[in-house]
Queue: 3 jobs
Job 1
Amino acid sequence: MRTIIPAVLIAMATVFLIAACGGGAASPTAEPAAVGNDGGLPLWRYVNSGWVSPLNDPSTDAFSRELRAAVITSSQEMEDFNRAVIGKRTKGTGVTLSRPEFPGSVVLVAYFMWLPVQGDPLSVVGLEIDGNRAVVDLELDEDSQGREYPYLFAPMTMVTVDRSEFPDQGPVEFEFRLDGQSMLTLSDTLD
């Protein structure tokens, strides 16, 4: 009888671990489901998400609902962005945060001011590049799950795109669309 109890406990623990790990089924990744121009892999790779609070920004108040974005093409621009916002509850790991390798990468950042901190409500769902024009499709999940925090944080998403996907000459116009509506357009030379 004593040898049966440890065997039963081991069997139960094994079943629990298999169920917790997905039972051998493919687990979802942080990569988006949309695909690039060739119908294969997405044009972008996930870098980071979470919530930020811009520093010294008197143009917004607690009732603001506006999209902000940035195009980052160098380590210095990344440092400047990180100094301009306070990152709160970000979800990037060492692996994802090391994805932007400058000058071969372009990082696209978008954040929406202001929403209660709950879930992970802002994400890139599409990217189309046509010559010197890029359309970044964002999705805002208003019904995010999780505990709501009473602070003014902006849900943020950050992805990287290979520089080779963009034209060599001239500035690129980035149109950021939120839930299908054009919200913001930026122009960058990608230098």
Note: Strands lie at 44-54, 66-72, 85-88, 105-113, 115-117, 122-130, 133-140, 149-162, 172-178, 181-188.
Job 2
Amino acid sequence: MPAELSAVVLQEGRLLAWAHHSNGLIAVTKNSLIDISDQVSTVTPWTDSVQAKWEPPHLNVVFQGQMEPKPTSRSWILDEASQLPRAVRDRVTSTVVVDRVFELPNAGKVRFVARKDEKSVLWTAIADDQAASQTEIGQLEIAKAVVELRSSFGI
């Protein structure tokens, strides 16, 4: 493992896989995804992950932190097809326990994602139409949908 990666990995839990990408290095640890691009390190916890997609040689991961209003998508072109895409899929799958999309009459299309950490499950509602989802009726529909999903999944 390259030295610039090992210094960051030590703080983030056990290393599962790493690879070169078009601008640097990427690593998967038990707790986080580490990206070193142009000598800048970005560490994103798996509890912020929403989904991942691997279409060789492109790896795309969508994240949304608890305080972020919208998800962000990050992608990398991997130099080699290592075990990294599989490790990313395994970490996202172990974090995201529910991922459903519903069309709500007054809030529009909304993706509901339940992500777990060691202590709890965090529900996130990602609306395509931010304006509609912020109205009082939109908020009520989203809240009702979360209650129904929690009940149906026992979460």
Note: The two ends are 39 Å apart (CA to CA).
Job 3
Amino acid sequence: MASKDEFRLSLQKASTPDRAPTQRERPSAPRAAKLITEPRLIAKALRSTAGFADVVALVPGIVKWQDWFPVATFSVCQKFGTAAWLDIWDADHFDGFTDMQRCVSDCRAWFSAEGYAFWGAPQTKTGRINCYFRAPTAGNYICTAQLQSYNGAASVECLIDNSSFGLLPFNGTIVQPHPCTLTADYHSFRIRQVSGSFFFVGLTVWRA
């Protein structure tokens, strides 16, 4: 006699065919965003972020982008510098839209949210990104996350190790610097999906 935990064969009958969606009914991905690694542009984004005056009062030299030193760069298709590991959890594969080959070709990963129940999506918001890198010396760093929302606004929570920068809302492509003070060792910059769907384009880390 079979136990309750044992799989048992059964004959199922599908009486109603499942209509195949047309190509027009399937969404199309927006144009891939190029990873921005130019310090001058990142410094511009830093200055335009609320709270900049408070941070620069504590670290006056953080505005001197000419003195920044590139430490690590992460993207779906490549890593540079002291970038050690890129962990991506619960990314979504949607054939013809963000299948694995396209994600590598476009150098980004997609995290869905609502709106895909027809195709069997659980419509969860459990995407996670972990960028594990080494800070060569103790000091001030700028971790710049580049994200691209899809089909409306999205928000994520960014953390350095276990210290949260708070919620980051965005609509479209965002290049958002996160200043932090690090010890000379390995650290994790983490991104947690909160709402909406988005692409992870990349992360750059600078010694400021």
Note: The chain is about 10% helix and 40% strand.
